[in-house]
Amino acid sequence: MRQDDVPSRRRRLVPLAAVCAAGLLAAACQGSSAGGPSGSGSGKPAAPSVRLSITPATGSTGASPSSGITVTASGGKLKTVNVTGAGLTGTAAVTGTLNAAATSWHSNWTLPVSSTITVTATAADPSGRTLTQSSTFKTLAPA
């Protein structure tokens, strides 16, 4: 190999080295930092694995006041249950009891008749990801 070919060969390799470096940089920037262990790379956090069930279901009409409200969490634990509606504050607020495992909540007393009630519950899965769900229903109106 001739000595004067070395600089010429180096000049030809510089663009190739630049393309390789750019490719490595692009690959490093696309690493999955928010995708978690799933490796999806989508950047979206994984959905919580906990599921909530609220009875009466949203949109129900004529819900029995004596049946009360039941909220259950599967695959996680209930964190909060809030019941709202016209006049449901202070001593008229709807309260309930959470079971020892924090997976079920049931209202303590009969619900008011002819009322529109909204229940909002939040639960967390074992990883701490939370899910909030609401149900708005109407209780039975006396005839």
**What characteristic shape results from the CA principal axes?**
elongated
Output the strand order for the largest sheet.
Answer: 1-2-5-4
Helix content: 10-25%
Number of helices: 1
Report the order of strands and helices. HEEEEEEE
Q: Tell me the radius of gyration.
A: 30 Å
Low-confidence stretches: 24-39
Q: What's the count of strands? A: 7
SS class = alpha+beta
Description:
This protein is an alpha+beta fold and 143 residues long. Helix content is 17%, strand content 30%. The chain has one helix at 5-29, and strands at 51-55, 70-74, 77-84, 96-98, 104-107, 116-124, 130-138. The protein has a four-stranded antiparallel sheet with strand order 1-2-5-4, with no helix packed on it. Strands 3-6-7 form a three-stranded antiparallel sheet, with no helix packed on it. The longest helix is centred in the first third of the chain and has 25 residues, at 5-29.
Topology:
Elements: H1 5-29, E1 51-55, E2 70-74, E3 77-84, E4 96-98, E5 104-107, E6 116-124, E7 130-138
Antiparallel strand pairs: 1-2, 2-5, 3-6, 4-5, 6-7
